[in-house]
Amino acid sequence: MRKVLLIVLVLLIAAGAAFANGNGDEGKMADSITIHWAQWAPADYLQQLSNLYTEESGVEVVVEQTPWETFVQKYNVEMIARSDAWDIIIGDSQDLGNMAINGHYVELTDWVKANNVDKNFTPASMQSYSEYPAGSGHYYGVPAEGDALGFAYRKDLFEDPDNMAAFQAKYGYKLDVPADIDAMLDIAEFFHDPDNGFYGISIYGDNGYDSLVMFGEQMIWSYGGELGNYKTNEVDGYLNTPASADGINMYKSLFAYTPPAFNDAFFVKANDAFTAGIVPMTCNYFAFLPALANKATSPYADDTGYFPVPPQKGRDGVERQFSSLGGQGASVVTYSKKQDTAMSWMDWFIREDVQMEWAKLGGYSCHSEVLKSQEFLDAAPYNPAFAVTLNIMKDFWNVPPYGEMLESFSRLIGNFIIRGNGTAEEALQATTDEWEAILSK
Amino acid sequence: MKKNRKSGSGKPPRLANSMKETNFVRICILPTIILLILINIVPLLSSLRYSFTEYTARKLTVPGENPLFIGNENYINLLTDPSVWERFTTTARYVILSVGGEMILGFSFALLLQTKFKGRGIIQTLLVLPMTMSPVIVGLMWKLFLDPNWGMFNYLLGLGRVDWAQDPNINLYAIVMADIWMWTPFVMLLSLAGLSAVPQSLYEAAEVDRASGWFKFTRITLPMVSPLLMIALIFRVMEAFKVFDLPMGITGTGAAAPPLISIKLYKDTFLTWKTGYGSALGYIVLLIVVAITSIFVKYLNKAKQED
Q: How does pLDDT run across B167-181, given as a tens digit for each residue?
């Protein structure tokens, strides 16, 4: 009997010690954390940046990269399986609602407010990469890579005296960075010379995912249309308007001046056409513009200028300027077993000096002070245009069924722009009907 | 007999050993069978269940909510959607053009290669190469080859800047060309196997009767090779109906892509996450493929019986 009591006592002590040890581990830093992001240059920059965190803390940071084609699918599948493979996900902005609603991301509202993240980062970036639903004051991430559409142009062609004189004679105003989207169409028409293998402009077609939406939505907004009311989920009366049709008609007009084989164009083709010297200007995400400023990848690097999406007066006489938002926010995964360490990395990442370093490495910081600094503006030729763009960027719906809405828009509006069927009004009405049905589910 | 009873089996030793062997074989096969059930049968049955529900694999499973049983609504919606029928029509056109081309070319090459000549082995090996490649790689390779800016295809044929991959009016034919290029060798190999099995005595007898070449082809060659040609036809129709990797590589899945049923299946299931709806479409495609295959198998059996 004594032996039994002794054994029970020993077991209790051992269990108590194990329990005490377990509690002690909760606040303990893990040796490493894993961040999941898409496979592209900014992810390499983040790895370089995080190596500085490793030097400071001793915690190893692995930035795991997945090709863009399967990026969103992959982390969605992992989250459904409640996987702890990653501690932080730098996920697509459109996917924020889905991740928040399904509890895959840790709510960071208290942390955001306690650390003034909502005040230190630009309001547009907080709304797009962090807050869900819009205007709710609930935060699930921190802006990591701010991104939006911008333009690159060939300064040598725009400043060529012969081109300038011919343009002035034809259109009655000076050839320059387009003052509005109407002027951009004139410039595209002016340079378009398919017989000699030169084309007016390089813009996105439909890659089967979101490229057509990204260019189309900023055309709609610029001409005074809307994609809907994000607060009430209404679409009718917002998307199917004459102003939206103006934007879509302009998209089609511009698309007529793209090079051949541009129906599925996305960021690679947009840049390739520019570096191949067959277009005078190209639209692309800022994240892809560094390749155009690099002599190793673009023979026109020294002659390339950059500008944000131009403003445009709508049929109501009001001038608007919008750029489609890309980019991603960093969020902590609910199923991570290293949340404390992940939060420690987040604490470090939001520091102003770290954000400046991030910008210097090539990342697009959304930190207000960094964006204002001369050091940032001088760091790269496209940074001034990016600083302007961060104040004009706007996002697509980030509700959970956004994928269905993207597909619907691409198919129906693409049927008009790419296949040339029907009218802009018919395409917008059909999209409105489908979106209303999707959102009413 | 007594000895056998003592051993407990009641059967002759050879039979007992054979049964032991059979059991051993069964035990060895069991893991494979379990694995096959897990990776084939279970998903097949799950997707059948999902096809009767409104379900998205993107959200957490909530009983009675996700998946939500909706009966045959997915099937009705699909079968009454004109765009789905347009996709089936385009897919059928694709199957007829690509498989038809492969059968004609594959059999013709086999007839040519039947004759012995110098370098036949090398030519045969070179002709077989396309089918050894990954379809995705073939798709991407053809995309480059057909590119109107720098592709070789237009240049070699002097066609100017024809946009084979992205012009919605002609890009179906671009995929047909790539499919024919890739899979003609498959038909050729099966045809060669069939041709080599035709007894020479039949041709000799026909020669004695002074039969014409056409007579020998239609009355000897074709009937003897037809079972293998039918097998080639079955495999190619099945594959062509489901083709996805080639169009994905050549045209992508955007608005300019040809309306093939496989592209819709991909978009519904993996892009918009309508898992239930996509499962229903998958089953419709499966039933069509099974129905077509059954017809061909019936003809195949008939051809074998006639042999």
A: 999 999 999 999 999
